[in-house]
Automatic annotation (TrEMBL), chains A, B, C, D:
Subunit (UniProt): Homotetramer.
Positions that bind FMN: R123, S124, S125, N239, A240, G283, K298, P299, I300, A301, T302, R324
Swiss-Prot/TrEMBL cofactor(s): FMNH2
Binding positions (NADP(+)): R46, K52
Protein name: Chorismate synthase
Pfam families (alphabetical): Chorismate_synt
Amino acid sequence: MNTFGHLFRLTSFGESHGRGIGGIIDGCPAGLEIDVELIQQDLSRRRPGQSKITTQRKEPDQVEFLSGIFEGKTQGTPIAFAVWNKDQHSNDYNDLKDVYRPSHADYTYIQKYGTRDHRGGGRSSARETIARVVAGAIAKQILAKAGVHIQAFVSQVGEVQLNKSYLELDLTKTEENIVRCPDPEIAEEMIARIVLAGKEHDTVGGVITAVATGVPAGWGEPVFNKLHADLGFAMLGINAVKGFEYGSGFEGTKLSGSEHNDIFVKTENGIRTKTNNSGGIQGGISNGEDIYFKVAFKPIATLLKEQKTVDRANEETTINPKGRHDPCVLPRAVPIVEAMAALVLVDHYLLNKTNM
Amino acid sequence: MNTFGHLFRLTSFGESHGRGIGGIIDGCPAGLEIDVELIQQDLSRRRPGQSKITTQRKEPDQVEFLSGIFEGKTQGTPIAFAVWNKDQHSNDYNDLKDVYRPSHADYTYIQKYGTRDHRGGGRSSARETIARVVAGAIAKQILAKAGVHIQAFVSQVGEVQLNKSYLELDLTKTEENIVRCPDPEIAEEMIARIVLAGKEHDTVGGVITAVATGVPAGWGEPVFNKLHADLGFAMLGINAVKGFEYGSGFEGTKLSGSEHNDIFVKTENGIRTKTNNSGGIQGGISNGEDIYFKVAFKPIATLLKEQKTVDRANEETTINPKGRHDPCVLPRAVPIVEAMAALVLVDHYLLNKTNM
Amino acid sequence: MNTFGHLFRLTSFGESHGRGIGGIIDGCPAGLEIDVELIQQDLSRRRPGQSKITTQRKEPDQVEFLSGIFEGKTQGTPIAFAVWNKDQHSNDYNDLKDVYRPSHADYTYIQKYGTRDHRGGGRSSARETIARVVAGAIAKQILAKAGVHIQAFVSQVGEVQLNKSYLELDLTKTEENIVRCPDPEIAEEMIARIVLAGKEHDTVGGVITAVATGVPAGWGEPVFNKLHADLGFAMLGINAVKGFEYGSGFEGTKLSGSEHNDIFVKTENGIRTKTNNSGGIQGGISNGEDIYFKVAFKPIATLLKEQKTVDRANEETTINPKGRHDPCVLPRAVPIVEAMAALVLVDHYLLNKTNM
Amino acid sequence: MNTFGHLFRLTSFGESHGRGIGGIIDGCPAGLEIDVELIQQDLSRRRPGQSKITTQRKEPDQVEFLSGIFEGKTQGTPIAFAVWNKDQHSNDYNDLKDVYRPSHADYTYIQKYGTRDHRGGGRSSARETIARVVAGAIAKQILAKAGVHIQAFVSQVGEVQLNKSYLELDLTKTEENIVRCPDPEIAEEMIARIVLAGKEHDTVGGVITAVATGVPAGWGEPVFNKLHADLGFAMLGINAVKGFEYGSGFEGTKLSGSEHNDIFVKTENGIRTKTNNSGGIQGGISNGEDIYFKVAFKPIATLLKEQKTVDRANEETTINPKGRHDPCVLPRAVPIVEAMAALVLVDHYLLNKTNM
């Protein structure tokens, strides 16, 4: 299904090489002044062609609002928007029309729907995340008023890992390099790794870490819509994501309970926890500490290498794609992770208004 | 919120020390003969006191159906059920009434709701998962008719890891030992680790792996309700879960795309993939291969050790719980993981009926 | 589907002659002190056997709460409840097991589900409305705190009509007679009409009018969840309801716009309308005036008369039911109408909290 | 909220004088060949300026599809569409910017949202129904394949009533006159009544009757989503609607049960009912007979007459609108009623696939 959220709902539409990508945001509170520039900034962080380590396809990605904003303010009515597609070169994809590319959605879409728009991946293209970035950028503006800020960064590319807690890093440096890693030295290693993958006509995966600060205690709706469950759901819905963990995550499973428990302490700022293995969420509800989590991205499937496969006629065949490709999706996925986190948080911000 | 699922919906209720735990299943197809014995089997796999490595509290956990089943068959109407609580010893919890136990939901529930049923964790108790196990056991029966089977097992306890693919294991051996690990040798190590934790009045975490076989190609609803996104959401909603990964997961982020891609091959059983890094899901839709995933559980927070904390009056205090505790929740969580997977899969089985 | 509401959600369960009728209320704000006596009052207003003009079957209808209330207060967690069935005399229905009673749901349930619990109508019995009355009685308690009160009354029985606006009536007199009509003279006529129907072993339909006072301007969620659309949906979901109108309703279609428009006037109590053809709702949103509407009930289908019909074997047959029947459901439906209105209003009360 | 439907979901957007009106249809089955001409036909039936008895504003209303259709077929992905606004003359509305027009949504939108797009009614304009007509026209195409057809017609204008059952009428004549009444003589009277209202700068209300044929037994989801409850909800969500009844409706409340019951009979076409007071729905589920219902429309609020009112500054004032107006919305509302009925029916068609 193509609607995300309970009260702040994004319904998205669009294919890679159709008329455009867009969506409708329903449930956005009225009276919010929209800063379009901030939305365009996130679209620019997501778009291809922004640096030497991303695909060189040019997509200007200008958002147009179609409803719901009047005299610069939200009206409480549905906010429709679109980013129109340009320069699609649909014919580039004719060769792949009837071929199931390995680890893409070609085969499964045909199995499910009996048909598919093959051009550039159609609906399964990561270009669809444009709608999420636009809606997330609006959600961020609501959250900013509530004192909540989200920052994501690349913490792993292939085997190159940033082995530091986010607390040891200066996250404001994230945007200072093209890979979006706040540690300049590791960033250089990551960039080199991606350049290598590009030269090899191959791709490389990695991990994005995200931190949300300023979330007050009380957000989250147990037992099923625990705050981290909704965050995980949001992240796993992003193309190429294979895993999600929050707080101590998979590593924390090796600790004993007495090591893992976060002791409550009394501070001048109220009750806090001494450590934060909980990742800011206890019993599915935010506890006022930073919320942090990691998202695993596989190396994306589009390679410029010869690969065996099967086609719609059930015949074995070989593909050997040419042209441009994106050796690593991680830098461009940073704003997508932030956007999805913002959608979840603003939803729980609104949900929590109805609990007392 | 306390409803799970889109078409096959479980709404759950109940607190640890209230009248009981139960739920309503809405959307269960009519005409299904219910095998109550299979449901009780899963409840027994979940219940405390079943072996020396789980808490010794006795909870017989007998399900009573309140509606929706007539002459042994589902009627298409809501199936309500309850497992009535017994022997609750509510007074045992009086000491903890106004104390925020570390890494429990005590503090966050008070922050969110301004009130809480403190007895045994109330709504935040893992006893709530009884409702999921009952509903999941019914979902399993529907899936079995469709040829789908789910098997979970413990693949890590603390540092003790089962470093084998599920393909190298005989999963039918899972229930042959009390820790529910299909490798008898590793199982012994795991049991020893849990016994040690118990002796130390401490707890230990770990990982559960699950495999679903027989899922045909075509289940999953992009772009948001990708099959793995719904599975991740389901798993992250289970108490103490900190992470989820499917297919190649976090490890797969280190591979290059050419290593990671699953090549399509033509077989006598139709189109298959040579490897299965995709975990049976491509573009959010099942591709006919086995679906497998891992779920990380933190060491649970209830220890029999002295710990500092803060109380509702904002005063620092110390707790030192006595009695019985559960050193490792993993063996009992195996049927819960299966249940939640079954709920997701049956939901997508029904959803997929409406796509063509 | 068996869940009603967006934020304040009732999921109901139960069959006429099963274990009981009940439900789960999810989304009820925390900290509400529940007055069980008020709930029982509404159950008593709904139950059979309360007067000479209703069926003489005795159903004590005592509610038991199963979760979500602790020390008398709601906890923000799901409130499960049940009214256990008693004295069901299930065998009374054996004769009707395979017969399609005219204008009942027997035939359609079999067509839809392939099976049905035939005892007393099973799930299609009006006994199911018990769950609505309990949930509605809780909703009323929340609304009362917000200054909102709902009063329904019988305004027509067969051809006997109360041709007065609710403004000309003293609604506090509604409960002073057994037919629940606030006009004592018309009430006598209505009672006589029902007694006659009873003697004839027949039934009679009618109309219930309801008024909600104290609803502030701003409730309602256009374009689809207009306040009156949700009210109509709620009313049409009650057994035997055939129509709904609000404000000027069907009669208002005969007026010209200049007669129908409600002129705004400035008063000491703020902006009001001079007339209220709008029924307190404009553009789907409450405007602060009284909300009023009418609900049409057909004469119920259970007669003690011989009727031709067809059975499950597709053979023509004749039924001739004996025993007790309910000549007019209207007096007992008054609390059901109020309950459903309360569920809608409390839902919009919560929804409106998220709009600004 | 701006999403309609459970499985076949329309999310609509747009204001009267914004960029356009449109929506996203999610859940439309894949592989459907879309006949755009049929969609344009319904848009033309809805648009202003089509005859002397509707407003003379010209709105060409050409639909553009933005996604979800490839090579003329639906893809199972979201179908976005828009009808772009033209010639909006937004400045015409400057005088009404701060005035609460009687019986419009001006006052309630300001009360709810604190802001509104005043141009032509903004979101509350009936122009929003364009999205419903487009989605409904697609729903009709799915239903047609299932043998289901919907026909609505005008059965009352002011006091001019068509006092015949739809069975006595030749519904194919509905489109032969500009008022869309299948009885030519009554149609003339209705047209005269509307012309009179236009001359008087006033408006007139009325009733639309709709019939759905070919619905098989089994559609409808008790207890809350009874087929008629979803139909009523859909109709009451249309601008200016004040009432809904199906089958015998309000008049049927005057019958006794023995008169009202529909006797089952055995026919060569299976089990049928002798009469159809049930309106094709029993227990909330279709029984295979024709489904028919009536929808009451108030006279619309926009008059070309002087009227007293109050403005945003809380001051009494007078409005005296000039220009064109629509004396009777009924003829143009016929396709809207059909569209909403189609959305409900296709939704239940899909829902019913999941019940067995």
